[in-house]
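Hallway conversation turned thread

IA: we were arguing at lunch whether anyone had actually written out Bromodomain protein end to end. Turns out nobody had. So, for the record, here is the sequence (75 residues) and right after it the structure tokens. Reply here if something looks off.
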Amino acid sequence: METVENRTRMREEVGPRKKMWGTWEELILGGAILRHGIQDWNIVALELRSRNIYFTPQACKAKYEDLQKRYAGCK
């Protein structure tokens, strides 16, 4: 049986960096990229940092590249 203590322990083991990219954050990333492009990741990251301090320019660029690979064949 899952308890509050077990859920807290699971969150701690995963850490905030691994749990930060949910569907909503991916949509915000996409919107920021549509507005600002992919030339300046600092500006893109600023939009996401209001939600989580771990949204660095490097993290945003890496997630963008991951999404590009994941959905490469979709139109």
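OS: looked through it. DSSP finds four helices and no strands in the chain.
IA: good, adding that to the notes. The helical segments are 4-19, 23-36, 41-49, 57-70.
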